[in-house]
Write a structure and sequence with these properties.
With 146 residues, the chain is an all-alpha fold. The chain has eight helices and no strands. It has two domains: 32 residues, no CATH class; 95 residues, Chromosomal Replication Initiator Protein Dnaa, Chain: A, CATH 1.10.1750. The longest helix is centred in the middle third of the chain and has 23 residues. The chain is elongated and about 75 Å long. The two termini are 36 Å apart.
Length: 146
C-alpha cells in the first residue's frame, strides 16, 4: 500500500483520531519496508560468492581479502584487486556498482577500469589458473558465468 492508502485505511479505523492514525501508518510503513525481497536474497548470495572469490584470489597471491577490499594502493595490491574484480564479474555476473560495493564502496567506473586493465595485462595461462582457482573452469556448479 502507498502512504496515502495507508492513511485513508487507518483514518477510518481510528474514527478520525489523527495522532493514532499517524502512529499506525508509520508502524505499517516500517513493517512494509522490513519485508525481505527476492532481489535482496539474490544480492546476498552474490555478495557471499563474491567474498569467496576475493578470498581465494587473495590467498593465491599471499594477501588477505581485507587487503583487496581496503584502501591500500600499492602496485601489487592494485593488480591483485583488479584480478579479483574481474573474477567476481565473471563468476557472479554482478553489476559494476554491486562489485564496487563489495570492494569497499568503490565507484562503478573504478570497477570497470579495473576489469579492463586486468583483462589487458593478464596472460592467458595466469587467467586460466585463476578461472580454475575460483571455479570458473566450466565444471563448477553454483557459480554463474557472465
Amino acid at each position: 500500500m502507498t502512504l496515502p492508502e495507508l492513511f485513508a485505511h487507518h483514518f477510518t479505523r481510528t474514527e478520525g483520531d489523527v495522532l493514532e492514525c499517524v502512529r499506525l501508518v508509520l508502524e505499517a510503513h516500517a513493517m512494509e519496508r522490513r519485508k525481505p525481497s527476492v532481489r535482496a536474497d539474490v544480492e546476498d548470495v552474490d555478495a557471499l560468492a563474491a567474498r569467496r572469490i576475493i578470498a581465494q584470489v587473495a590467498t593465491a597471491h599471499g594477501m588477505t581479502s581485507l587487503d583487496l577490499r581496503g584502501r591500500r594502493a600499492s602496485r601489487k595490491v592494485n593488480r591483485v584487486r583488479h584480478l579479483a574484480m574481474l573474477m567476481v564479474r565473471l563468476g557472479c555476473g554482478m553489476t559494476f556498482p554491486a562489485i564496487g560495493t563489495v570492494f569497499g564502496g568503490r565507484d562503478h567506473s573504478t570497477v570497470l577500469s579495473a576489469c579492463q586493465r586486468a583483462t589487458e595485462t593478464t596472460g592467458a595461462e595466469e587467467m586460466r589458473k585463476l578461472r580454475v582457482l575460483v571455479g570458473l573452469d566450466g565444471e563448477t556448479a553454483g557459480v554463474r558465468a557472465a
